[in-house]
Design goal:
Largest sheet: 4 strands, mixed
Order of helices and strands: EEEEHEEEEEE
Radius of gyration: 22 Å
Strand order of the largest sheet: 2-1-4-3
Number of strands: 10
Structural class: alpha+beta
C-alpha cells in the first residue's frame, strides 16, 4: 500500500502526495497509509521557491550576465519537513544552464559583421 501525506491548502481543502514510507504506526485507509503533513502545501513549496530565487540572483549578478538562466531541480514532498530539493544517489540534484548569445554590432552600413 502506498504511503500518503495530506498537505493542507491555505484556501481550504488538501492534496494527497505519495511519499516515502516511514516505519511507525499510521492510520490506514483504502487509499493506503495517510499521514498529516506538518506544513501547508504552499508553505512547503514556498521554501523551495525562496532557495531558487537565491540561486537565480547569484547567477544574475555575475559580472557578465547571461542572456538566459535556467535552473532545474527535483522537488520531493515529505510529511515531516515539507518540500526539499530531491537527491540523486547521495548528492543533491541541481542543474543550472547559463546561456550567452553572441553580441551583434551594427556597422555604419547597417550590415552585421561576419
Amino acid at each position: 500500500m502506498p504511503e500518503l501525506a495530506r498537505f493542507g491548502l491555505e484556501g481550504g481543502g488538501s492534496v494527497l502526495v505519495d511519499v516515502d514510507e516511514v516505519p511507525g504506526v499510521t492510520p490506514v485507509t483504502r487509499q493506503g497509509r495517510i499521514r498529516e503533513a506538518r506544513t501547508t502545501f504552499e508553505t512547503a513549496l514556498g521554501e523551495v521557491r525562496d532557495a531558487a530565487i537565491v540561486a537565480l540572483t547569484k547567477f544574475r549578478t555575475m559580472a557578465r550576465q547571461p542572456d538566459e538562466v535556467e535552473i532545474a531541480f527535483g522537488v520531493r514532498l515529505d510529511a515531516e519537513v515539507g518540500a526539499v530539493i530531491a537527491k540523486t544517489g547521495m548528492t543533491g540534484n541541481f542543474e543550472v544552464k547559463l546561456t550567452w548569445r553572441s553580441e551583434v554590432l551594427d556597422t555604419p552600413e547597417g550590415n552585421q559583421p561576419p
